[in-house]
Amino acid sequence: MPLRNRILATAVITLLLGSLWSGQARATEPSNVTPAITPPPPSLNEKDFFPYKQKGRGTLAGQAFLSSPFGKAITQAGALVHLIPITPYTRHWFNDTVRTISCSATASPASAESTAMPRPLTDCAHEALTQLQTEKRLLPYLRTTRVNPTGHFWFTKIPAGRCYIVSLIEEGAGARQEERLTGLAWLAIELDAGEKVANLVVTDCKANLC
């Protein structure tokens, strides 16, 4: 090969290698993009709850249950049902606890190779509800009742507004082992002034199509 051609070939190879090295160097340089900052949870503003403190003329009635793998409604006599006003504060609590707990409980079990032991659902659910109930400023705005043996419940004198209905069902009654379920049943509802709502279905994440 003539000397001139060899010089040109060497120059081309040098340029290609330099371009490749430059590209790799840019790829490994730290990005100047600022990482996303998770916004802090909303603070409790009692003004958001004031409309829920007064007595209203509305009524709510329904059934709280879990869905068994066979489509049967699993209830627990005496289970507590909580009526919780929807505000920015409680919406964050609900999405971060109730929805997360109930939906993760429907996922496939962890691999046998996993070394991390998941916390029992009951513990997580109790912790979530306790977190809300220990906030003393919230207590005047929360309502609680118990279900009868078939899982039915009633709330009366409810003011207009939007609320969560949440119930923890532990070891739901059933003749077979697969019917002795534990889980969170929930529903979000909006009630008009003086409205009377019956036949509400308060159930778990599977039936709520999370």
Salient structural properties:
single chain; four-stranded antiparallel β-sheet; three-stranded mixed β-sheet; 29% helix
What's the helix and strand layout?
Blueprint: H1 3-28, E1 58-64, E2 66-67, E3 73-74, E4 80-85, H2 88-104, H3 121-133, E5 143-146, E6 152-158, E7 161-169, E8 183-191, E9 196-202, H4 205-208
Parallel strand pairs: 1-9
Antiparallel strand pairs: 1-6, 2-3, 4-5, 4-7, 7-8
Helix pairs in contact: 2-3
Question: Would you give an account of this structure?
Answer:
Strand 2 and strand 3 (73-74) form a beta hairpin. The chain contains four helices and nine strands. 23% of the residues are buried. The chain has a four-stranded antiparallel beta sheet with strand order 5-4-7-8. The protein is globular and about 60 Å long. The chain has helices at residues 3-28, 88-104, 121-133, 205-208, and strands spanning 58-64, 66-67, 73-74, 80-85, 143-146, 152-158, 161-169, 183-191, 196-202. It has two domains: 1-31; 46-106 and 119-208, Immunoglobulin-like (Sandwich). 29% of the residues lie in helices and 25% in strands. Residues 107-115 have low confidence and may be disordered. Helix 2 (88-104) packs antiparallel against helix 3. With 210 residues, the chain is an alpha+beta fold.
